[in-house]
Every structure is written in C-alpha cells, then in structure tokens.
DNA sequence: CTGAAAGCGCTTACAG
DNA sequence: CTGAAAGCGCTTACAG
C-alpha cells in the first residue's frame, strides 16, 4: 500500500498534476479551472484521503512551516507555559514547533541553533544565554526571522519581548513602601543575565528615589546551588539583619526558598515581614497566608513573540520590524483561603 | 548570498556531487574514494560552512528524523518533565521533536495526529485520550512507529509505557496499613482514563485483601472543576466521615487540594490523618511536615518510550516488538526540613 | 482553461 | 575509484 501522490489523483481525475496542485492550493479560480472539474478533483481527494507530502512542498517552496523554539528548560513551568501558548498561536497559523532546551549553556544553545538551521526552520524563538549573541546576530544578518523571549540584548537590533523588569520591581517596592515597610531587602541570584541585572538596578533606583539606602540589604546568591544552600544563605542573611521588615525576591524560586527560611526563623508573614516575589509560583497560592507577586503575563509574552515573528515571516526581515516589546507585570496578592 | 548546495562544493572540489554525497555520508571508504580526495572535500565543506539541506535529504530518503509528541498539556509539569528527557534522548540519536497538546480532547488529538502525518514525522509518542483508539490503531496497521505514554489500551497490540498503577497504589495503601491506619479513604477524579480506573480498582482490591471495606470511603470528583470546588468537595467528604484516618489521593493535584481541605478542617498532618498521593508535586516538599508520595519515575518512562520507538524505527514495526512496559513507582516520604 | 517541463537539493543504483 | 542519470513529490512559470 504505497502512499498516494498527486500524480495518482491526477490520473484518477484524468488531468495533469498541475491542475490538482492548483485546486489543492486554492488557485482554481485564478487558473480558471471549471467548477465541475474542481469539485470532481476535490471529491477524489476526499475519497482517497490524499494529502500532500509536506517534505516535497517544503523543498519546492523553500518553506518548512516549522519554527524552532529554544528555551532554557522546557521542564521549567515558566517555559512550558510559554510553550503552551506559543503552540496554540503557531498551530492556528499553520506552523509547527520544534523545541529544545539550552540549559542556559552557550555551547549547547549554539549547537542547537545550528541543528535547527540545518533542519531549515522558517524562524526562531529564543531564550538566549549571553554567549549566544554572536550567532544570533549572524542569523539576523542573514535575514532569518527571529525573536528573543524573556531576555534581550540591549542596544542590538534584534526583536524581543519580555516583562518590564524596571516597572515590575518598582510596583513591588512601592507597594511595600506604601504599606509602611522601611527596610526592604533584595535577594537575587548572581548571574550574568540582563533581567536579573535590571531588577537589581531597579531596586536600587527606587530606594534611592525614596531617600532610602540599598547598601546593606542586598543579597546575591550563586546560581544553581542546592535548595538547602539557598535556604541557608537566606536564613543567615535575615538572621544578621533583624531590622529588615520586608523582602523582595528577584525571582520565584528564591521566594520559595525564602519562605522556607522565614519559617525556620519563626518569623510570621506578613506580621513581622512582608514578602514580594518576581514571577509567580503555584506554591504561593497555598504556602503562606499572604504573599505579593509580580506576575509575568506569560500569555502576552508568547502572543507578542509570535506576532513579532510573523511580521518578519510575512514582510521579510528588516530593521523596520518593531524592535522590542516590554510587557507590564501585574501585582497580585496571593492568599490562601 | 544564496545558500551553498552540494553542487557548489562538488564544483569547487572538481568532482561530481555524488562524490561529495558519499563523503558526507561516511561512505568514502565503501566507495573507495582516495583519502586525499576525501580530505580535500572535507576541508572545502569545513571552509564554506556547507551543510546539507535537510528537507531535500528527507524527500529523497523518506525519513524526516522528526518525531511527533502528543501530550495532554505541555504546560503540565508531568508532561514537560517527560518532554525534557525525551528531548535529550531523541537529540542524542539525531531526532528532533515536534510537540502538541491534545488537552485530552479526542477531536483535537485526532486532528493533531493527522497534521503530523502530513508533516511526515517518522514516529509518534502519544499520551492518547480514550477516543483516539481507532486512529492510533490505523497508524499501527500502517506500520507507523509509535508508542503510548502514561496511558494505554489494554488488550490492543500497541506499545506503551507507564507507571505500574496497581503496584503503586498497593505500595501506598500497605504503607498506611503498616502504620496502623484502618479507615483509608480514596479520593479520585471521575474520568474515563485507564490509569484512574486502575488505581481505583487497585485500592478496592488491596482493601479487600486486607478484609477491609472500601464501600463508604470512596470519593469521585468530576474532572476539570475549579480549585475551590475541589477543595469544597473534599472538605465536605472528610467532614461527613470523621472515622477516616488516612487518605489516598489518586493524583497529585487532588492531593494539593486535599491538603488545603485538611488544613481548613484543622486536622493536623500526620497526627490526625495520614496522606498518600499518587504522583509527586513540588508543593509536597514544602507544604506540610510529612506526606508520602508514589513518585512516578518520569525519566525512566521517557527513556523507555524512546527505546520502544527506536526499536520500531530501526527494525520496522511488527507484532514482535515488545508490547508494553510498566515502570514501578517509588514510595517517597516528603519532609520539609 | 489545460499540458509539458523544469527544478527545489539531495541520494543511490548503474555503468564504466 | 568516478560520472551521468533518475527520481523523491511537489509547484510554478511558460506555452498553447
């Protein structure tokens, strides 16, 4: 039972393959193929269950209708949620997604980029690590449609979309200030990543704008420690600084560890200490009586990414393509009922 | 700057494209191409940065080296973790993955299946919904390599891999019995899914084997309610049955809701009530002083799935392909430090 | 309206 | 060892 080809359909219909192709691609009117013939061909296609070989179409048209998605780690809920929306948006306009996880590793990311180029993907959606900048610039120069997500390279002409870190931190800190907290610590991870740096900068800036000093209340923890090590580091930090009455955690998992520390120290929340986290986490819904979160609008980010990509896919890549979009985060109070 | 093709390389090397192709595919020895020539060609390939157009290779060889992965929902941590390991395994042997989420919806699943067939994927890894059985059987008859994950169709000749539900429930219940609990409730979701039915059956069977009645302690909650509704249902159930001293939640999110209910009822854990959950959840590590979990070895499931698929990819699909593999779950005690 | 032909970029028997 | 040719299954100018 060999696969049916367009020639088989043509033979059955008593026409030449081109005619079938025109019908298949909705060019029957344009090519002035009679309605009767069109219907006949459509009936045969229906009846035989024929569908075009996508590989052949790709080779001929030069378009695979596949997009490459490079995220840091698909098992991470942020990226898998992103992937979910991207999937819907992409499939709706006829694109499939090939995914891979870079692990935030430059070499792996570059390798995967090459692999997907070889695969002839039509475009890229990338959560880049800092070391991938050269390869990404090259792709951009070669007019490959691409968009960065969750990260970006400030100053470079590469489209991106991510949460507005500056604004988010500002929302969070001002929320705490408004509640009357004065000694607001900031716990972040020591990582060469634009968004972390921006969050830290924003923290300092907002405190400064309010005539408060950020000098002694900043904790930077190394990247990729074990849970216990995070918890210990935060515990030690909080123990030594009893004047702290609020903490801003720069990302959700720090918040999760921080809550553990706070519990170890028998500080109650929010009576003794107020907490704000960047990025949401399932756990915040249950863990504690009250925690404030700067929630990333992941759906919006995903939709924006696809929009920016489609723009390039359709109109071609140029410097006139809208460069970058910051999406506002949302202040959300998480309460367990 | 047009893309370089094999003909360009051939021209540069002063040979015919076939020769380049042989070198490219490691058939230089076989075709007795001189070492000198091979080296020369390789140097040119290196120098020009040429790589074969995968679409053309696919059309010619009939193999796309793409696998289709249909999961219920990529945003769900179980499936995204599965996806992560599958990715590693697949890339290591030269396959890419196209993913899609079926939402456990028969029609959507069938549609996606068709779409991926059109895309000429080489094989499928599927988390099927019950209604997809016919289409999956058809694929199997057409000798399409495929493997089911997390679900299966008992009695049908379709390879699968999933956790051993019977064994897992038995481990959990016997753990509770051993601890001296006598009135063990079972909370599950009312869904036509093999694994849920198997877990329920196992619960009844184990109780029966221990001369205990399961009649009054079984709660089946409708699928896809809102969190509050789950919590309310469980709360009501536990309130009405004060003799219950332990609960087995059939899946992790029920456990998460259950813990909320237990907290609402001011029952402490595990002093007043012991809890076991099927499937792990991040939250169990933090939420409560102690909870026992039947942890699914997701990595093993993923690796097994790839293994079963590769077997078919390489040796062809036949009824002699090993049919199904149950993977044993692990009893894990979750403690917060 | 329809047909014959070229060509997308490869791989692989076949001939020498 | 090397070369010429067919063909994977399509699409699309071109000619009539």
Explain what this protein looks like in three dimensions.
The structure is a homodimer of 337-residue chains. Chain A folds into three domains: 6-52, lambda repressor-like DNA-binding domains (434 Repressor (Amino-terminal Domain), Orthogonal Bundle), CATH 1.10.260; 64-162 and 299-326, Rossmann fold (3-Layer(aba) Sandwich); 165-295, Response regulator (Rossmann fold). Chain A starts with 5 loop residues before the first helix and ends with a strand. Chain A has a six-stranded parallel beta sheet, with helices on both faces. In chain A, strands 7-6-8-9-10-12 form a six-stranded mixed beta sheet, sandwiched between helices. Chain A is 45% helix and 18% strand. With 337 residues, chain A is α/β, with parallel strands linked by helices. At the A-B interface, helix 4, helix 5, strand 2, helix 6 and helix 11 of A face helix 4, helix 5, strand 2, helix 6 and helix 11 of B. Chain A binds a DNA duplex (16 and 16 nucleotides) through helix 2 and helix 4.
